[in-house]
Amino acid sequence: MPTVATRALVAQLHGEGIAQPAIAAALRITGPTLRLNYPVELQSKSQVWRRRVQANSEGAKR
Predict the structure, then answer these.
(1) What 3 state SS string does the chain have?
(2) 12-41: string of b/e by CB count within 10 Å (b at 16+)?
(3) How many domains does the chain have?
(4) pLDDT band at 1 (very low <50, low <70, confident <90, very high)
């Protein structure tokens, strides 16, 4: 069952470019279980990158 902590870990590892099989192994689950339970956290890196850029630009405006 996903928790706030595991969701954050998956998002962080995915954002760092870690492959899904390695993320699944770190959580001691299978790849299909990872994809089933963490679809939002596994969004493409480009979407993660866009959110980071947007957050950085909003922070710079303040």
Answers:
(1) CCCHHHHHHHHHHHHCCCCHHHHHHHHCCCHHHHHHHCCCCCCCHHHHHHHHHHHHHHHHHC
(2) ebbeeeeeeeebbeebebeeeebeebbeeb
(3) 1
(4) confident
Q: The domain containing residue 20 runs over which residues? A: 4-61
The reported pLDDT for the residue numbered 29 is: 98
At 3-45, the pLDDT tens digits run: 999 998 998 899 888 999 999 999 999 999 999 999 999 987 6
